[in-house]
């Protein structure tokens, strides 16, 4: 199939209106949420059904053309960055909720449904716990690909703990069901392998999710401390006491200052750290634990513990936390959001290391994070107008990941590897590990057409298994080497 | 070329060099407490004993994580963690099994209701593949999305993809107190209605099981925490015209639930909570242990001449719901319900990539993998 034939075939599948060839229109899709990477695809399709997705992928397979799936494009690692000469498959039209079965605690959705729409569909008695801050826009398909998490994941778990089944179009154009509406169908847990695979193993066209009852009670407090060390120790003491908060979020002095200027929630500017703790669950248990948390905060040195009296006040506490990223624009012209993880107990020391490093680079790093699971989001501030500062900031952001790894952590807790963190993968994983990853990828997509160039640090090809060695065209052309 | 009929590595490295030298089929083995699950191994398969991989490498109480080698006995790990008021929140029926065997079979018990299964608690894994490659995925932190999640792929793979030598685990605090609501309900439809009434409520129960034996049933809902007994009593109010009891000294109830998951022949059923009446109807003379809010049930058949026939009849009655024969797998032709052809082809492809030589337990897994 030549290029022209592919275009015509895709046109027949999705219809004229949903085939985009115009450079202008395609620019909409040149980046995901990480704007420093841009690539215009050769063309984009917006299929309207799972069957159309399958037909598009099958056409690409026949034409030997790579493709990238895209949800809302809110990803922060360049995961949905198009490939040059490739097809972009935009899933926003697949936005139907197919089934709501509350007796069995299940919802079945198409991939383009937004995260927030799932909770809305099962309200008021149920909700869908994984709650990325981008939940109003990001899609369930994107969440599945990234194994997204949110503030409530320390207690409730991540996307992977809530997906029970998927319908997936594989790169050769076949449709398979992995997992199901029920748990534990026999065989390998391909579902576990697919969730978090960043669009490299296929396109999810139908997704079964588990939803859970809304907790009976929610109690929220914010405690202020002189230092992030003190606040970090309070987190450890709370968790050590056997309490699993619904959310436990920390902000440092810089973040408090910026966020308060935007949210006006009365956070005391000048304090070293703010800890937002939310408990939820059965009313009696929640109250008993809340008293304990309040006294732990005081014992760990907080002289200012504020308990929300009503829903409006709770919303205000959260508004400040949620303002943290956008507010940073007020104190710095530009910033990078880093995403790293450390074992929770190392938090206080890691924060000191980050401060030292920021001083060495002469840049400001603001810290806001999901403290329960040690997921840091350092915001590396810089001014792009100052020659070389962006590059220095990027280097600093990378060195923060080195600190995370030295502490026994990870290079990403929720944003994924995408294109952005490929360069860090070899620091976290050895050659044997990466080769094993490649085996999985080859099992799903031996020709490497699904979202190529993502996740793995260097392009790799799949050997034939089983059978005899044949040279891949890319290899022959010297563009890639076999691992 | 090694011709030994068994090897017993004491480290991941030793396992790697042993496997690199072998070319015959191999069969990883822990304590053998679930040895008969899955299909029979090829005659002459070399046993790779994990008993030498017996170290609890690290326990980080502050981080609620542990790193454990595959041969560590499950009970020993729990004892160790318990000293710090923590546990690996899995409570499968335990007959002296190892962590490796637990991961390989993805076995679980009543606590799965609250904490999830093996797949949800393994945060990192080290495996040795048939060519001796050592591969790790995940890490030692509870939140991590770097790289593919091989821990989930190997959980429940029955030793057919490679040898698991070490895992990193997420731990939980032991509950301060527990209490169990027990409700006796003899009608399957009413029992199911009671389950649904409970599962639609935000109870935050530790476990929600049904037991069915001798033509009558019980709903068992376990609570943990300082207010456990009060919450169990509150939950009873959701049920009308039902005999209920709150048991504070409840460990023996749950020990019985666990042990009823093992027997002469045990069929595990994947279904939905609303399928419970159908599961009970299909069970015949088997006792039923159901993780009722999850839809996962275990039918435990008493011994007897026609055991195989009873197992087969129950599975046929439950079809197309997938079933797996655990204990007594040898009684039937195929212990696993085969996945649909497309899914099975993908599973075969995974097997072919991870174990191209077909060394790990060939022919013993789903669809003859
Ligand atoms: C302001 C802001 C806040 C954020 N907060 C959080 C947060 O709290 N937690 C968090 O985890 N993330 C967060 N994110 C990141 C992002 O929202 C998530 O990664 C989200 O899951 C991406 O969804 P999307 O629909 O935008 O996917 P996209 O960005 O379009 O795509 C992401 C990846 O998914 C793949 N993909 C998309 N659809 C499918 C499909 N159907 N099948 C297979 N692959 C598919 C793509 O190929 C790509 O690799 C945030 C982003 C922003 C901009």
> What is the β-strand count of chain A?
21
CATH homologous superfamily label of the largest domain in chain A? FAD-linked oxidases, C-terminal domain
Structural class of chain A: alpha+beta
Count of folded domains of chain A = 3
Helix content of chain A: 25-40%
Strand order of the largest sheet of chain B: 14-11-13-12-16-17-15-18
Total E-strand runs of chain B: 18
Biggest sheet architecture of chain B: 8 strands, antiparallel
For the termini of chain A, the CA-CA separation is 29 Å
Average pLDDT value of chain B? 96
Give every kind of bound small molecule, once each: flavin-adenine dinucleotide
The overall pLDDT of chain A, averaged over residues, is 93
In CATH, the topology of the largest domain in chain A is named Vanillyl-alcohol Oxidase, Chain A, domain 3
Strand content of chain A: 15-25%
**Structure classification of chain B:** alpha+beta
Shape of chain A: globular
The most extensive interface between chains reads: A-B, 92 and 90 residues
Distance between the termini of chain B: 25 Å
Low-pLDDT stretches of chain B are: none
Order of helices and strands of chain B: EHEEEEHEHHHEEHEEEHEEHEHEHEEHEH
> How many separate structural domains of chain B?
2
Nutshell version of this structure?
Chain A: Its cofactor is FAD. The complex is a heterodimer of chains A (483) and B (369). Helices cover 36% and strands 20% of the residues of chain A.
